[in-house]
Amino acid sequence: MPRTVMAVLCAAATALSVSPAHASSGPAPVVTRAALDPALVAGRGAAVDFLEQEAENAVTNGTVIGPDRGAYTLPAEASGRKAVRLAPGQHVEFTLPRAADAITVRYSIPDAPGGGGITAPLDVTVNGKGRRTMTLTSRYAWLYNQYPFSNDPGAGLLHPDWWITECSCVPSATTPPPVIAKPFRPNHFYDEQRLLLGRTYRAGDRVRLTAPAGSAAAWTVIDLLDSQLVGPPRVRLAAADVLAFGADPSGRRESSDAFDRAIAFAKRKRLEVYVPPGTYQVNRHIIVDDVTITGAGNWYTIIKGHEVPLGSPAPDGSVHTGVGFYGKPGGSTNVHLSGFAIEGDVRERVDTDQVNAIGGAMSDSTIDGLHIRHTKVGVWFDGPMTNVRITNNVIVDQIADAVNFHTGVTGSVVSNNFIRNSGDDALAMWSEKSADSGNTFDHNTVQTPVLANGIAVYGGRDNTISNNLVADPVREGSAIQVGSRFGAEPFTGRLLITGNTTVRSGTYELNWNIGLGAIWFYALERDISADVQVVGNHFLDNTYNAIMLVSEWSVKDLYSITNVHFKDIRVDGTGTSVVSARVKGSATFENVDARNVGAVGVNNCGSFGFPPTGSEFALTDLGGNDGGGAAGPWLAPWLLPNTITCDDRPPVVAPPPPSPW
């Protein structure tokens, strides 16, 4: 099983305490970003209009669970790797750090014994008054088994012919066959819900969440509370209002056809489409081209659909459809979507399904201020397409990715988005068949991707990953991955990775039985030889390595990683090394400062040939590389250029919490 690595969260003394505006009987609230003191991530990640408070820093008569850096546990998937578990009758109470009229609760409750989820109440009071009840559900949580996962906790192995770590064997080829515990690999435990409080409360007011005594849930885990001031809904008068075309804001009747009529009218009259406050049932794709659709704000305008089985598979392989806004066949242009929520009904992963919130291709378009949850992928674009801007969105609780630029997306920007609980890469550029080029992922926040990476780049030309905050990837991935895999086109031109902060990253790789780096380079299908500049990044509280360069064992003598340059890097805490090299090639290092390093600074295995001339991977010291740990300087002269220092699975030393540099 994966090694559990214990680590301590930033305590209240090191996080931001906000003084309430009036007297409160509780302690001052502790505001964090990705469970860190906000000063540690200033200027990085998304600028959002809510404040995050971790449940473990609040007042509770429940039980704090965690920390845990393994997989398949509730604390491992919690923000900051801690949460609060409530038995029926117990509560957790947060003090508002500033005025708010809305909250978001991230939580987990048990699955039904046979899968499919349950519902349970959560009572909300402010200053002990005005009780309101949220109905929590685990319908969209709790996956099991091997990829692409199952909703059945009692299912046998989906792929008994795959090697698994649990027995270090291929079960179907092993005699006697191993006994595999059920449920096998439970994961994707959390969901979140939003609640408008009905009035504005002041800083210092106390929001209490109580699992009532009669709850059907044996336990309720609260991870965090986000609070914000939403304000009134926005109104558009000079627009094609969907209500005039028969849309039902109660959500009882299907409104897809009404949306189509409103869009057609708006295009003829050169108007925007306006979707006023309400919940609108939409159970299929709305095809959009040369149109602007605006809601009253994503707390007020909710477009929600059921997942609908298709009578026969669609030409693209889909076996379901559901709510989504899609470009027309061949690609759309001049599409602008803003100010509403999209809520799907996706509870299983079917990779051929087009059940994404936004899909197809949309050039010269914008997607701004949406709230997206419970779809397969928030935004999945199949190029060729160019010049799309995806900004200021909240994308949570996805079965797979949050945003994926798949094939030939160019000149586009993903900026200032907040992403939490994706079921695969949160942000990805995947240059399958045609290169993504000239794109930028900038100032986004990614928290707790349950599988794979926070940000992944698979091939492409002249792309940039900048000023993002990535926290708590859970399994088989890292904060940032640069990968030659999945049939991607080669890396060409320059890849710039600059100004990002990662925290509690570098997960256990289930298939290799090793720990990954917070940033990892993976040469699986071809060399990585483009100019890669990794500049000004901060790698904090790394579970294993900060930096990893690796190839698959079966192709270790075929592919190399070269022309990678690390400069002006800070590494604060590693469970193992600063750099782990498991590939042939080379990299340069300049002004890479490290502290609290748990093992030898460079774990250099090369491509495991161990020739007498030294490792097949060479490190070039360009100066200014300082610091280290108990083993000495992280980049000592004796390590250069290619001293073999290979420890395949070094012991993990949990680093202390990050602190100001």
Structural class: mainly beta
Largest sheet: 26 strands, mixed
Please estimate the helix content.
under 10%
Mean pLDDT: 95
**pLDDT < 50 runs, ≥5 residues:** 1-24
For the record, give the distance between the C-alpha atoms at the N and C termini, rounded to a whole number: 35 Å
- Taken as a percent bin, the fraction of beta residues is 35-45%
Count of helical regions: 1
Molecular shape: globular
Q: State the total count of DSSP E strands.
A: 59
- Rg from Cα: 25 Å
If you had to describe this structure to a student in words, what would you say it looks like?
- The chain is mainly beta.
- The strands form nine sheets. The chain has a 26-stranded mixed beta sheet that branches. The chain has a twelve-stranded parallel beta sheet with strand order 17-22-26-30-34-38-41-44-49-52-54-56.
- The two termini are 35 Å apart.
Task: Please describe the structure with a list of short key phrases separated by commas or semicolons.
twelve-stranded parallel beta sheet; disordered N terminus; single chain; mainly beta; about 650 residues; about 0% helix; 1 helix
